[in-house]
Amino acid sequence: VEKVRVCVMGPVGYPGGLQTHHFELMTFLLNEGHKVLSIDVELEKTPPSKNHDNLTIVHVRHCPGFIGKLLRIVDWGIAIRKLVVFKPDICLATANGYGYAMAAKALSKNTFSVCMEVTNDYPYGDRLRTRMVNSYSATSVQSPRLLAAQREKLGNKHALGVLPCFSQHLEHKYLAKKPDIEEKIRIAFFGRLALNKGLFELLESLALL
Hints:
alpha/beta; seven-stranded parallel sheet; 6 helices
């Protein structure tokens, strides 16, 4: 496999879905021998990142308030300058934001850039999403179901495809025990109380049993 230079931009910190995806994507690329520039948007204090010969990390602080906004602008300016010097072959954004859009605009025409969409819970014509889509070479979604919904919003002029997150294999000891016949089903939900997390679909399905 030809080795390439890849930039991965996204949130780090508390291990949520996006943070985990960013870390696993970066780790996979390094294990394959590619040279990686990771622009880490820190949502909170993070542990030191692991050292690797092919890894360069640029930190972007994400602090609240007016001072935090100024720091974020300065950090994005530094990150974009390092991104231009790095000259990536591929650039991947695992989140949305004006900093990500500005970074994509600064890329060379020789760089193929992808912004990753993980939800569809934003209105048609949303200014930020429109700016993101127009700044990147292509948009990726996590599932075929999201693909149809995004195609309806974006139209046919934008390159769009499916790029799923890395799957996580659960150990057998963490799997739920199959209920016995006539035993009540016990449900545990782990996730944010957001429309795209599937809780309401789960409750509606249970009501149909």
